[in-house]
Amino acid sequence: MDKSADVNLSYNQRVDISLFGDQQPWYSGYIQVIPQSGSTEDTAVYKGYGFFNDLDKVLVNKTYETIEISAMVHDLMTTVIEPRSKIRYNTSKIYSTNYTAEKLRFEYQKAKDVVKTLSEFAIDYVYGVDAYRDLFFKPLNREINENSRFWVGYHVSKFVPEEDCGDIVNFFYAKAGELREDGTNIYPTPFQDAESIAQYGIREDVLSIPSAVSDADVERWGYSELDKRKRPKKTCKIEGFNPDLIKRNIKPEGVARITVEDGSKYYDYPIKSVKYKVNSNGIQFSMQMGDYSPRLDQYIAKLYRDAKNAEFAQQLNNKQLSGVEI
């Protein structure tokens, strides 16, 4: 906005954005960056984040034994997240899973990483914070989003489907959170997929799950990860949305179906995100769909988490070995 405008926005102030006369918010967040006087720029830029960002500011130090996964989410919300953040607890938005973990241990991990880990144990669950500041934890919606049926040449002008084999992992060992009799944290049996190996060649790795203590939980997580990583990522580049699509208020839920220009084929992609950019040129609309690899910032964050996981595992080794005669 013009820096001469009389705007009174303060740090941590909540901002709700609605479009096209809708009374319900399309986006809700809070101010984190405030421009200061003396700038040579003609515009003043305020920056904010969604309430999902609050999960990165809360630490979890808990151990759960023989508890169903969603019960852990309920407990986290009532004892940790809601009391120490702006995120609200709505029990109706946390769905039960079909898995009871034997023992999961979270030692001073960020709440965002903890909820992500729990979604991996639940298998095909998604999580986040909606426009009402409510945390949700629910099964992945695999149905077609009726507002996201697009025809190339009418709804979108550019569509480039792709498959990326670069991130395939079809043979890996799991590094867990408990020291084994051989003195390592490595679960002894590798997770592997013969069909994927035959088609793409062997792609090896070591993946960490420091919260898992029991073998049953390591196996649950390992086979879930194998199923996600053993095949190519299907993505697409899509641009030139028809302006009328903006009014649909498309939610990042379900699956988008894109029919090619001659109608001979269609592609289905899970919807990852929906973005609206409002400026002097109007409203720009974009979507991200498919099995996208992490962005650079997410990749850097992963490197940081892996380093912390390695540090945690080493501390665990030292602690457990201190009681062992060598």
Average pLDDT over all residues: 86
> How many individual β-strands?
16
Q: How would you describe the oligomerization state of the chains in this entry?
A: single chain
**Major sheet description:** 4 strands, mixed
Structural class: alpha+beta
Tally the helices.
5
Shape: globular
Q: Which spans have pLDDT < 50 for at least 5 consecutive residues?
A: 293-304
CATH architecture descriptor name of the domain at 53-140? 3-Layer(bab) Sandwich
Helix content: 10-25%
| Radius of gyration of CA atoms, rounded to a whole number | 23 Å
Condensed summary:
With 326 residues, the chain is of the alpha+beta class. Helix content is 22%, strand content 34%.
Description:
Among the domains are: 14-52, no CATH class; 53-140, Phage tail protein beta-alpha-beta fold (3-Layer(bab) Sandwich), CATH 3.55.50; 144-164 and 233-289, no CATH class. It contains five helices and 16 strands. It has helices at 69-81, 111-122, 194-200, 215-229, 296-321; strands at residues 14-17, 27-33, 47-50, 59-68, 100-110, 125-129, 135-139, 144-151, 156-164, 171-175, 191-192, 204-208, 233-241, 255-259, 266-279, 282-289. The strands form six sheets. The protein has a four-stranded mixed sheet, with no helix packed on it. The longest helix has 26 residues, at 296-321. The radius of gyration is 23 Å and the shape is globular. 22% of the residues are buried. Mean pLDDT is 86; it is low at 293-304.
